[in-house]
Amino acid sequence: MRAEERRQAIRELLQRAKQPVSATALAAQFSVSRQIIVGDIALLRAAGADISATPRGYVILRETGGLVRQVAVQHDAAGMGEELNAMVDQGCTVLDVIVDHPIYGQLTGPLQLSNRYDVGQFLSRCAQSDARPLSELTEGIHLHTLSCPDEAAFGRVCRELRRLGVLLEG
């Protein structure tokens, strides 16, 4: 298979995928190295593909038909799991985390967490890594972009985050 054919196949696979697909899984499927896949993804992005890298793999973000909202929160690293579960338990997907860095400006980390299993996997990767959450760069202050099925679900998220004492409100 030629490189251009492989890139087109990767794009089509990601469009059909219901879950993120890792570079390792793509490399095995196309019998190339992981680094070749990383390069293919970079070239697809440069050509305009809306491919995001999440902690669980690559995704092409789709319109959910629901509401997209943001919440501002503040907590320490120990509160991360409780905060994320509070959002997914209300039927929302945590699309990303955003911090305002004093040097680099806005930094965004895609998450794509939809349920407690996703949150657990994310927390497990955090515990096994030397890397620190983005929120530690900003004394725990950060935003999350959420995809919610409706306004009622978003309202429940805000009430739960308020109950936890982590919701920042103007």
Which descriptors would you attach to this protein?
170 residues; alpha+beta; Arc Repressor Mutant, subunit A; Histidine-containing Protein, Chain: A; 2 domains; four-stranded antiparallel sheet; 6 helices; globular; WH-like_DNA-bd_sf; nickel; NadR; metal ion binding; 3H_dom_sf
Question: What kind of assembly state do the chains in view correspond to?
Answer: single chain
CATH topology of the largest domain: Histidine-containing Protein, Chain: A
Count of helical regions: 6
Structural class: alpha+beta
Low-confidence stretches: none
Keywords: Metal-binding, Nickel
GO molecular function: metal ion binding
Binding site for Ni(2+): 75, 83, 142, 144
Domain Helix-turn-helix type: 6-58
Any chance you could write out the topology, listing elements then pairs?
Layout: H1 3-16, H2 23-30, H3 34-46, E1 51-54, E2 57-60, E3 67-74, H4 80-88, E4 93-101, E5 105-113, H5 116-128, E6 141-148, H6 151-164
Antiparallel strand pairs: 1-2, 3-6, 4-5, 4-6
Organism: Dysosmobacter welbionis
Domain 3H: 71-167
Keywords: Metal-binding, Nickel
Structure explained in plain terms:
- The chain has 6 helices and 6 strands, in the order H-H-H-E-E-E-H-E-E-H-E-H.
- The chain is α+β, with helices and mostly antiparallel strands.
- Strand 1 and strand 2 (57-60) form a beta hairpin.
